[in-house]
Amino acid sequence: MTTKPARGMRDFLPDDVRRRQYVIGIIGDVYQRYGFEPLETPSVENIETLIGKYGEEGDRLIFRILKRGDEGKAGEADLALRYDLTVPLARVIAEYRAQLPKFFKRYQVQPVWRADRPQKGRFREFYQCDVDAMGSSSPVVEAELCAAVSDVLLALGFNDFEIVINHRQLLTALLNGAGVDPSRHGDALTALDKFDKIGRDGVAQEFTERGIETDAASRLLAWMGTAWPADWLPWLEQQLPLDGAGRAGAENLRDILALTAATSAAPHIRVEPSLARGLSYYTGAIFEIKVKDLAGSLGGGGRYDNLVGMFAGEPVPAAGFSLGLERILVVMGDRKMFPEALVATAAEVMVTIWNADATGDAIRLARELRGAGLRVDVYPDADKIGKQFKYASARNIRFVAVLGEGERERNEVAIKNLTTGEQVPVPRVGVANYLLASLPRT
Predict the structure, then answer these.
(1) Region of poorest pLDDT, from 57-61, 76-80, 315-319, 344-348
(2) What is the pTM (predicted TM-score) of this model?
(3) What is the predicted pLDDT for the residue at 74?
(4) Residue, of 361 and 440, whose pLDDT is higher
(5) I need a labelling partner for 193 at 20 to 30 A (CA). Which of 73, 138, 165, 168 fits?
């Protein structure tokens, strides 16, 4: 029997967990500074909650849960593992709207599951870090989301990221202007969403396979492959006439960009005409985070004004951003971006047990040191002191506290610094203060 986890799933050892907690802590701290509140939802949703919200590609990747007991004989599914955090949020808003503020801002860090093909940085079980604002269609919402995400990445040590932005209404106008049949818009967007993965030629091939006419595909790819100027709206209007919705989308995109100029996102944001975001629920601005030398993105999002209405029966303006925690961890690990302190052991001090008679004193000392805020381990056996030192050193524990017979008689504790090899006697009442002064605090 194999001891490896299922494909696309992972075990997290202590160093892995410390890194994850470090990143999640920074994300939560930044989002709270922007006024976002925490939320959690169940891992399992009713299947009808999820189906039909993600487009054809997404629906195929939903992990279905077969009916249980006698009802399960037909092999049908009535439940599913959570695919993302956005659709469950929409359900929550519809269910608890009367209890929530008019402008509800939430962040959520929980695992999601996708029946995808595993590869580097892509797993079947992974965490998403979502931040969403409900109740307003103002471009201030998108500008704040971009600023919050920028602050997260800057706090983590990234400086080479880009937030690329586009607009679904503008994309629709481009599709219409290129002559793509409206019945093929979904196919065109699905293909465009793979632009940065399979390139221009790959998208062209997929256009053909999906029945997009050759002339329309050529015109569309010409616009996507052109570097848009800084003052892109007048230039774009020279390329094709924008209908009312297309102009509204272009102006909304321009307003968002103008507002982000006053935020930390300003040096990192740019318009990317090929950005499509494959999920079908987006209605306005869409975003992705790109980092040099990374296939795919570190996260993405956009405006989805109609999604909550599918549950609530009335439209609720909404926009959000999702960070891919796993990809962030992979990139930070490859680039050695984590603080050195994170690889240290969970304990700062280890208390030895000199002999069985001294066990009670060792436990009491550990309790006193923990009460002072120190992370303390106790060697569980009355073993040779050299073996205890060796164990502490292997775990990167910096200090060892020894309560030998002589130390107990003198009401002292011998403190050995495993980094320097120095050992000093310290009065029992002053041990905690001595160690606190000797250890760097984080």
Answers:
(1) 344-348
(2) 0.84
(3) 66
(4) 361
(5) 138
